[in-house]
Amino acid sequence: MEKPIIELRGLTKCYGALKAVDDLNLTIRKGEIFGLLGPNGAGKTTTILMMLGLTEPTAGTAMVCGYNATTNPIAVKKKVGYMPDSVGFYDSMTALENLAYIGRLNGIPESEIKDRAFEMMKIIGLADAVDKKTSAFSRGMKQRLGLADVLIKQPDVIILDEPTLGIDPSGVKEFLALIHQLSRQHGLTVLLSSHHLHQVQQVCDRVGIFVGGKMLVEGSVDKLSRNLFTNENYVVSITLREAPPARWEAEDALRQLGNVQQITVTDRVVEISCLRDITPDLVRFFVHKGLDVMGVHKKEYGLDDIYEKYFENNLAENNTHEKPGRTFQRSFFKK
Ligand SMILES: Nc1ncnc2c1ncn2[C@@H]1O[C@H](COP(=O)(O)OP(=O)(O)OP(=O)(O)O)[C@@H](O)[C@H]1O
């Protein structure tokens, strides 16, 4: 990771009385994959539009690839590829023709266009579909082709707005793996916005949780979970070969290990909540009692837990930023 390639300082956008983006400060370094995460109406698209110079900030600055996006939008557009949440193509044209057309619009010399477009189709894994009309493309294929559209001009930064919308789970996995590979191989900086926390958490170097126009927290998922859950207990689930008896005398002895706060037995699974990580002691304990341990699982906190922790305190505020006609549901953040 190198020097900052995106720097947002005090970035603010008001629509009348509504602060769609409120004093946003964010630095993204070259080669990073950053996930801008938040529910509908959080202000993600507005932030992206300001970064592309497509809407003017009410206050603050968006510097992208060294250019002020408000005063120098053309320079920014040359360096940045933007993929909106819904990409349109000319259905009567083949994938290669669509791509070549975008290449021409981006000023690629005619002599290079076909080769460059074909190369892109290979990179996105659609070499076999070059001559297929895009009307016959699945949503997942269209997203890949959309990615080729933004990559053909060889940008330094790509901004993807809700790139996984409407793709099936295996398509999402493949698409995100492709983005990760491109970023690592070509030092491409990626900013992606999403409300599908689960999907993007694996590929993002850092995420920012954005609610009601404000960035509530940013960092790696690991760092966020460490900061937020330092005071939480360790929870270890031990699966035994057979369920312990209903009245289980060993439970008292288990409590004597120290640091154990709570024990819950559900069928063959004993869940132990403790003040520090005593997993090895727990495993030894069960083995000494002559019980076969079939599995050990330590609870780890992910983005859902992080988001919900913030979300609990921000639901009321978020509702005031809802887009008209849309309902925010907590289940958006679930698998
Ligand atoms: N042109 C506009 N005029 C008035 N209000 C707007 C305009 N564009 C966006 N908003 C409002 O600004 C807030 C942020 O919207 P924005 O589209 O940036 O959110 P988002 O996080 O991208 O949501 P989504 O995931 O639904 O696209 C919302 O309350 C929205 O209704």
Overview of the structural elements:
- It is a single chain.
- With 335 residues, this protein is α/β, with parallel strands linked by helices.
- It has two domains: 4-89 and 137-227, Rossmann fold (3-Layer(aba) Sandwich); 233-298, Alpha-Beta Plaits (2-Layer Sandwich).
- It is built from eleven helices and 14 strands.
- It has helices spanning 44-51, 73-79, 95-105, 110-123, 139-151, 169-186, 197-201, 221-228, 250-255, 279-288, 303-319, and strands at residues 4-15, 18-29, 33-37, 59-64, 67-68, 80-83, 157-161, 189-194, 206-211, 214-219, 234-240, 260-266, 269-274, 293-298.
- Strands 6-7-8-3-9-10 form a six-stranded mixed β-sheet, with helices on both faces.
- β1 and β2 form a beta hairpin.
- The longest helix has 18 residues, at 169-186.
- Adenosine-5'-triphosphate (ATP) binds next to β2 and α1.
- Adenosine-5'-triphosphate binds next to β2 and α1.
- Belongs to the ABC transporter superfamily.
- Keywords: ATP-binding, Nucleotide-binding, Transport.
